[in-house]
Protein: Transposase
Amino acid sequence: MKRVNTFEVVPQIENDKECLLRLLDASASLWNELTYERRQSYFGDGDVWDTSEYRGRYNGVIGSATVQQITRKNSEAWRSFFALKEKGEYTNPPSYWGNEDDGRELRTYIRCNQYTIQWGKRSRLEIPVGQELKDEYGLGYHERLRLEVRGNPKWDGKQGRLELEYDEVSDTFRAFQPVTVPDSRLDSRKIEDFPEVENTSRFRNSPLASHEAALDVGANNLVACSTTTGNQYLYDGRELFGRFRETTDEIARLQSKLREGRYSSKRIRRLYRQRTKRRDHAQNALVRDLVERLYDEGVATVYVGDLTDVLKTHWSARVNEKTHNFWAFKKFSHRLACVCEEYGISLEAESEAWTSQTCPECGDHEETVRHGDTLTCPCGFEGYADLTASKTFLRENSDCEIRPMARPVRFEWDDHNWSGKPYPHESSKEVRTNPKVASVESA
Ligand SMILES: [Zn+2]
Structure:
């Protein structure tokens, strides 16, 4: 089975960063040149496979192996385009990395046997660059560009083609490393297959997955999560939404100043793109942070509310707008599904009707009142609404025993990470126990 390791590449000196940027920029240029030529052929009834021999020009910067890799990746894109077209599916021919306004999307692909990653206290990645770059940046003839990496490889196996990309908004380099994991190793995470825990492989040492989690997805709190291990997480989106709003206001201001007959400008389009990029970045980081956390806890199943359900039942029009534009709920669900699959966690969409209004103490959902972040019930219950909802949702779907809940952790976005603190808002009615000392074991 194919899995993907994702990590950050962190050049330690400006020289290395510049060298890496040059490599990615030249790669994007090669891709775009090739794409341009093939699109010309395609729309002009020519043969897309018949390309000219200009690619050697890139060898000096990128190195011939990477030139080949990018060419191959481009050909794959065209092949799958033709395959889809043949099946009668609507699809567009492969497109450029980036555009004229925004510049290129900086990215490259490194062949599986051309790079090495060493994981350790100071993990590092080595990738080849062309002779020209070596000369310019002081690398020896046989040397490769050596870069520090941060992150944890989740999967161990035969390494595939490495993808490297630069995210301009957050000024970070990210790497995606596909690995082929033997099927048996994936199975090993199931407790019934491997009762003996003292295996040496990282996967056998990983927490045995038998726990479950439920998510409540919202507009202010992007995600509230409860797990059967007794943990609660809250991802606060207010700060992020505030910034989204600011950009939206700026767009409106610029639009009001446009000359008559004009409806957009370069600057406006740029702001729109920036707004989307920021949101996507935070969203992807949230999904990854959450799923990694759940994986480490040994969660095997995640319950999430059914989308149509969520949008229909208890969301006002204003909240809906917030979720569609700002939080892009569909995109979020898709991302969540992908990352869960990557970690071998199964994601189940269930109806969550009433869960946000149900009292966890007496089960009532008609007399309860939700005010701001708090849910109160005539029976005396008072608790944090979204967290309570995720716990109720978990209880409705899970057959596992649910451990008493620890103090929730609240995460805020700081432009790069979701950093968490114990949540101070405590409800007196809910039992708070350290899950580590709880004696209840899940089945
Ligand atoms: Zn009640």
